[in-house]
Design a protein that fits this description.
heterodimer; A: about 110 residues; mainly beta; 7-stranded mixed β-sheet; 11 strands; about 0% helix; B: about 110 residues
């Protein structure tokens, strides 16, 4: 199916464990983004990527690692999960043409760190 | 830090009434966008207004932009129960590739 998919949708892990959230899009969009959503903070940008092998930090990158070896995939890794990383994570993408336009979002990955 | 701040944080109205949400931002923008998020779902793009535009319509949605006041409003006319959701404004600054989101307005339509 065309679109942007995230996996897993729900994840419970323990402090100190490594967790990887996957994001896959089928539009060949050049830009991909990871946001986290927390009550009272709205959506905050963690990392983004303008193309394969090009990534850059957002507003809250500490504790997260990303890679983009293929245009369609943009995994987000929490190398050593902390309770403060309990959140809902959204992946988004957009094309790279013209004015910065609309983002297309995945359904989110709800992560709980115990 | 948040660029956009929505007001009010929460709004409840009767079905059929109009709903107005406001967004204020801090720095000059290239464009401003509005998104809707249904409970437990991802965000969905509603409308984009460029910095040189003052008003835009899409179906029952009307968006205004006042760059002198650094503010925007989203009007939903003839509200329906299905409009119950959170609404976010997002801004794009000149020379920036990123969208910065506000904290959202939670809209509840009472049948």
């Amino acid at each position: 199916d065309a679109g942007i998919t995230q996996s897993p949708r729900y994840k419970i892990t323990e402090t100190g464990r490594q967790v990887t959230l996957m994001c896959h899009q089928t539009w060949s969009h050049s830009y991909m983004f990871w946001y986290r959503q927390d009550l009272g903070h709205g959506l905050r940008l963690i990392y983004y990527s303008a193309a394969a092998d090009i990534t850059d930090k957002g507003e809250v990158p500490d504790g997260y690692v990303v890679s983009r070896s293929k245009t369609e995939n943009f995994p987000l890794t929490l190398e050593s999960a902390t309770r403060s990383q309990t959140s809902v994570y959204f992946c988004a993408s957009r094309d790279g043409m013209g004015i910065t336009g609309e983002l297309f979002f995945g359904e989110g990955s709800r992560l709980t760190v115990l | 830090s948040q660029q956009g701040e929505e007001d009010p944080q929460a709004l409840s109205i009767q079905e059929g009434e109009n709903a107005t949400m406001n967004c204020s931002y801090k720095t000059s923008i290239n464009n401003l966008q509005w998104y809707r998020q249904n409970s437990g779902r991802g965000l969905v793009h509603l409308i984009l207004i460029r910095s040189n535009e003052r008003e835009k319509h899409s179906g029952r949605l009307r968006v205004t932009l006042d760059t002198s006041k650094k503010s925007s409003s989203l009007l939903i006319t003839a509200s329906r129960a299905a409009d119950t959701a959170s609404y976010f404004c997002a801004t794009v600054n000149f020379g920036n590739e990123k969208l910065t989101f506000g904290t959202g307005t939670r809209l509840t339509i009472i049948p």
